[in-house]
Design brief:
alpha/beta, 7-stranded mixed beta sheet, globular
Length: about 950
């Protein structure tokens, strides 16, 4: 209270208030009708003093306020501000927000698809656009004062993360960087790196959620709290859930028990009935009805499958769910018809418009990457307006789009990661459930996990209670990056720049701990060396002789085993159908008839590391009527045919009668034959000169006669084991130090070999490569260099370029993709041949795709669809033949358009004029041919 203050204190407080009101932050705060949180104020104050900031805070906590303050400062200071986002959808959303606040004339948008008011003082863009500007030395960068990097934790992304680091490293020193990140467990480490490369950077971490989140489990008809109510930070798991999980585990029974008779089956059924009466996984309509009755809508249900999202909407419609009244239904229809007015009627049928609209009118929708972007935008808008109350979404919705809900539902805690079904991580759980709780609307948010068979409450509590989401760099140099860096900075400076990457920063930090271990090991080695000292002579030398002898004996034993395996494999290769053999060992040892000799030893086609087959694998019928495919392990010694038999043409390995008859004939024909016993040959060690020499030296050594020889030898063994471990650690240190720079050196060596670089000079070929961004940048450049695309029509060129961007969601080797005929097919074949040449070169220069560097094989799976669409075919026909959702089709078309634009810019530099311009001209025509219909009116890519 001011009346309690002395005059001097009142004067000081008034001075402080006046100083605060004079700041840019005070003006900024007046623009909002709510107060700022402490972490927002701290970050804004740091920005106003000229520092860069890293803000790590939970989803929905208002991090973007700090980014908007950077926009405010830039406008106030007469500077430019670039606001970067990872995805076009976010860029569009942010552009709309800023244009509404500051006026459309002051805000621009650059996303590769759209270019709106690019010279405005505030430009929203995708991170790739800014990276390309930096390499091209764009004039738009003049006057740039602030860069906001929203969702900066994307730098962990395996495929695109490097772009964030490139931008951070290459931004001019005069630019103040504002990095906004989800809550990460190593924010301080990331902040230390930013401090190193960008100068003074304030790290502000907030764990506080503005809307508290409550965790629940929905099992049967009841919703259980995950944690018990209680004081203290350490929360206990609800004992009811633990008891239910234990009960379910004890009630699980072995299906084999069913064979014991009817009474057991009756008991099983009764047990199942009792179990179902309390615990079951509720259906999707049931979950939505339950949330509605509890007042927990709107809700986002995360299902890790596009098809399941669509199926969930249909299940809710069939169940008769209606979440909107008549007035809301009419409002939904009005908005939908307005937003989709540009889509032709014939396309609406193809896109499933009417089924989609019915779901929206009832307040239910799906949201996933396979949907048409326009449809996704409408779902987002209706959800934010409260006109859609239940959304079934894949995890892509968790990536930054502003769609908060009151509740988030997770059907399962397992998802397909592209290779296998794996548990979701604590970081992913935090990201998904972070959508729950709308600031300024909800008092609390709710995360609901559905009970599943084998559910573990402790596992869920671990996910909910852990905040481990470490930021890991995925930075790797690329061919395009290499030529751009060398052109701007020369090889030496480029190498130094790459060593400032966050990837190298993390690698160097990890080396510190290993170095300490090496030091400890070296101290241990000194101790072991002292303990193995012998008064008769040099025991280290004696131990070395013992070790050499042991290693030589081991090597000879391995060689012998390898020769025996090779002899056995060679014998197997000589087998023919109808040969009667004796299987020497294994589960199926004994008499057998060869039905099929199996795959011959050798290599089958694969990428780089060819697939090796461990010898033939014959299919045999045993005397006990079993048909089995044997492996080389069953043949430790060579096998020979004892006799031959005719296999009837009518023989069917699946028929028990066929197997019985042929096995009987086998026993009759050859049951009396006794196979020759394989005799072991003389051991190679017995005649080895090196072993004889080493044994003689050992016996002649002074230490051989020591009474404590074996005691010394034990210490020597420990010494050598520790020395080997130490050498491995030293190799790890060497491997982690300068890793990025060494990869860069290998890339530069390959580019020099291919005449893209000559020392610090970038050749004409290199200048072309510098304009081609993308995973297959070098392949695209080589295709231009070799004139592979000369003489192609726009549609044929679109088909070829699609192979540079497309990647099938799941590997399907069963069917070869349908390809356009004529010149396009020949050009695609030539592209694959060029890739094969590059692949061999990369192997020669030790550039490995497993390290995230190098050119993957072009995927021809989208070539037919791109060709048909660019040829003017209808959407219905193209989607039917491509067997692809509309959203995927639009996304791939936009990526093809993006690369075609790069090719149009790069092609004229092939020869300056003439032939190169045909490709450039047709690339531009191909862009126009692709950008029509659904592709043209989708504002999001």
């Amino acid at each position: 209270m001011t009346e309690d203050l002395s005059p001097a204190e009142r004067y000081a407080a008034a001075r402080k208030r006046a100083a605060e009101q004079a700041t840019a932050l005070a003006d900024f705060r007046e623009m909002y009708d709510f107060g700022l949180d402490p972490f927002q104020i701290e970050a804004c104050q740091a920005l106003e003093t000229g520092k860069g900031v890293l803000v790590a805070a939970p989803t929905g906590s208002g991090k973007t306020i700090v980014g908007e303050f950077a926009v405010h400062l830039a406008l106030q200071q007469g500077k430019k501000c670039f606001y970067t986002t990872p995805i076009k959808a976010l860029s569009n959303q942010k552009y709309a927000d800023l244009a509404k606040r500051y006026g459309a004339e002051k805000v621009g948008l650059l996303t590769g698809d759209n270019s709106v008011n690019a010279d405005a003082p505030v430009v929203v863009m995708t991170t790739e656009v800014l990276r390309n500007m930096l390499y091209a030395g764009s004039q738009t960068l003049l006057g740039l004062g602030y860069v906001v990097m929203d969702e900066v934790h994307y730098l962990s992304d395996r495929f695109r993360g490097a772009v964030w680091e490139e931008v951070i490293i290459h931004l001019p020193e005069s630019v103040t960087l504002v990095s906004l990140s989800a809550t990460v467990s190593n924010a301080e480490e990331f902040g230390d790196w930013l401090d190193t490369v960008r100068g003074d950077t304030e790290v502000i971490v907030s764990e506080h959620r503005p809307v508290p989140l409550f965790q629940h489990v929905l099992a049967g008809r009841r919703m259980y709290d995950l944690f018990e109510e209680g004081e203290g930070r350490k929360k206990a798991v609800n004992p009811d859930l633990t008891r239910m999980a234990r009960m379910e585990a004890s009630r699980s029974y072995n299906p084999r028990e069913r064979r014991k008779g009817k009474m057991v089956r009756e008991a099983d059924r009764e047990r199942e009935r009792r179990q179902r009466s309390r615990i079951w996984t509720p259906g999707r309509p049931e979950v939505i009805e339950r949330l509605d009755s509890e007042g927990l809508l709107p809700a986002i249900t995360f299902i890790f499958s596009r098809a399941a999202c669509e199926a969930a909407v249909q299940q809710c419609l069939y169940a008769g769910l209606r979440l909107n009244d008549d007035e809301r239904r009419a409002r939904v229809r009005e908005i939908v018809e307005e937003r989709t007015a540009a889509i032709p009627d014939e396309d609406l049928h193809v896109l499933g418009y009417f089924e989609w609209l019915e779901g929206l009118e009832r307040g239910i929708a799906a949201h996933h990457a396979g949907m048409l972007p326009t449809f996704k935008e409408v779902v987002e808008e209706l959800f934010v307006r409260g006109l859609v109350k239940a959304v079934f979404a894949t995890e892509t919705l968790a990536l930054g789009i502003n769609m908060p809900a009151r509740s988030v539902v997770l059907e399962k805690l397992v998802k397909w990661n592209g290779e296998q079904h794996a548990d979701i991580t604590p970081g992913e759980y935090t990201q998904l459930t972070g959508r729950a709780g709308r600031r300024g609307i909800d008092v609390e948010g709710h995360a609901v996990v559905l009970w599943q068979r084998g559910f573990s409450p402790e596992h869920l509590a671990g996910l909910a209670g852990t905040r481990t989401y470490p930021l890991r760099s995925s930075f790797k140099p690329s061919y395009n990056m290499a030529v751009n860096l060398v052109e701007q900075f020369g090889r030496h400076r480029s190498r130094e720049l790459l060593e400032t990457s966050f990837a190298q920063f993390q690698a160097d930090k990890s080396v510190v701990g290993i170095s300490r271990q090496v030091q400890r090991n070296e101290e241990g080695l000194e101790g072991y060396k002292a303990s193995m000292t012998c008064h008769l002579g040099d025991f280290e030398e004696y131990a070395r002789l013992r070790r050499e002898l042991k290693d030589r004996e081991t090597d000879l034993a391995k060689q012998g085993a390898a020769q025996r395996r090779a002899a056995a494999a060679a014998a197997l290769e000589k087998l023919k159908p109808g040969d009667v053999i004796h299987v020497p060992s294994g589960k199926f040892a004994g008499l057998a008839l060869v039905l099929d000799p199996g795959i011959p030893a050798g290599r089958s086609n694969g990428h780089r590391g060819f697939e090796q087959h461990d010898g033939p694998r014959p299919l045999v019928l045993t005397a006990e009527r079993q048909v089995k495919r044997l492996a080389s392990i069953d043949f430790p010694v060579p096998v020979e045919a004892l006799d031959r038999m005719r296999i009837p043409k009518s023989f069917n390995a699946r028929s028990p009668q066929s197997r019985r008859d042929l096995a009987s004939a086998l026993r009759t024909k050859a049951g009396h034959i006794v196979p020759d016993r394989h005799r072991k040959g003389r051991a190679a060690a017995a005649d080895d000169r090196e072993i004889t020499r080493l044994r003689a030296e050992l016996r002649a050594h002074p230490c051989h006669g020591c009474d404590e020889r074996e005691d010394h030898a034990r210490w020597a063994e420990r010494y050598y084991r520790l020395r080997r471990d130490t050498q491995q650690l030293e190799r790890r240190i060497e491997g982690r130090t300068n890793t990025i720079a060494r990869t860069f050196d290998r890339i530069v060596a390959l580019l020099t070999e291919m005449d893209y670089l000559r020392g610090n000079e970038v050749t004409q070929n290199g200048k072309r490569l510098a304009r081609l961004y993308g995973e297959l940048d070098l392949l695209a450049s080589e295709c231009l260099r070799d004139g592979v695309w000369e003489g192609l029509s726009p549609a044929e060129l679109a088909a070829c370029v699609s192979a540079l961007v497309f990647e099938a969601r799941a590997a399907d080797d069963a069917l070869a993709p349908k390809l356009p005929s004529g010149k396009a097919k020949a050009a695609l074949g030539e592209m694959v041949r060029i890739w094969g040449r590059l692949d061999a070169l990369e192997e020669e220069f030790k550039i490995s795709q497993t390290e995230g560097v190098g050119q993957r094989e072009p995927d021809l799976g989208f070539a037919w669809a791109a060709h048909q669409w660019a040829s003017g075919k209808g959407l219905d026909e193209v989607l039917r033949e491509a067997d692809m959702p509309a959203g995927d089709f639009v996304r791939w078309c936009k990526q093809v358009i993006d690369v075609l634009g790069q090719i149009a810019a790069a092609a004229p530099s092939v020869s300056g004029a003439g032939d190169g311009n045909t490709v450039a001209k047709n690339a531009r025509k191909a862009v126009d041919a692709l950008r029509r219909g659904v592709v043209a009116y989708s504002s999001v890519g």
